[in-house]
Every structure is written in C-alpha cells, then in structure tokens.
Amino acid sequence: MIVPNPAVLQQAVDRYRALAADGNISVAVSLQNAAYTLCVLTGTRTVEEALTAADRLCSRATASGSPHRRTLTLTSAGPLGSSGETASGERELVA
Q1: Element housing 4 (H / E)
Q2: b/e string for 25-42 if b means 16 or more Cβ within 10 A?
Q3: What's residue 80's pLDDT?
Q4: CA–CA dist 68, 62 (Å, integer)
Q5: What is the rounded distance in angstroms from the CA atom of residue 55 to the CA atom of residue 68?
Q6: Which residues of the chain have pLDDT under 50?
Q7: What is the pLDDT of residue 70?
Q8: How far, CA to CA in Å, does 83 sit from each of 78, 79, 90?
Q9: How far is residue 72 from each of residues 33, 78, 91, 93, 94, measured CA to CA in Å?
Q10: What's this model's pTM, rounded to 2 decimal places?
Q11: N or C: which end of the chain has fewer CB within 10 A?
C-alpha cells in the first residue's frame, strides 16, 4: 500500500476543515475537491473515513518520529534492442 507523505496529508486535512468551517455556499466546489483529494490520498470512499484514516496516519507518523523523506529511483525501460537489451533512464523522486 502506498502511504501518503504526512505533511501533504496534513495540509489536505487542514484545507478541508477550513473550508468546511467556512459554511459559505461559494466554497462548495472547493470543499468537494478537498474531500475528493482526502479520499484519494487515504484510499477511502467517504470524507468521514478519510478524516479518520488521515488522523491515524498522521498520528502514526508523529509517534514514529521519522522524517518521512524517502528517495525512490524509477527506471523506465525503453524499446528492446536487437540483443534484447533495454534502454533505461532513471528519475529520482523525493517523497
């Protein structure tokens, strides 16, 4: 399972809660977008589930004290050459 970066997840939670507290009808679309983002980040289907999962994930990250900075190296394979070799390029992602 892919676990979202706790800082990004906390920003999404804060944005949703701020928009929900506003109560103004003009922020309805932004609130729906924030709810969708939370659901995608947490792999849930409802805002309530997403907030519960986000709280759990952020609490776990805080308790572990880890910086949650990981470097991933992605290799993208190119077309196969005549000898069966692949051309590849690497890209570094920091999460």
Answers
A1: none
A2: eebeeebeebbebbbebb
A3: 43
A4: 10
A5: 16
A6: 68-95
A7: 44
A8: 13, 11, 21
A9: 28, 19, 8, 5, 6
A10: 0.61
A11: N
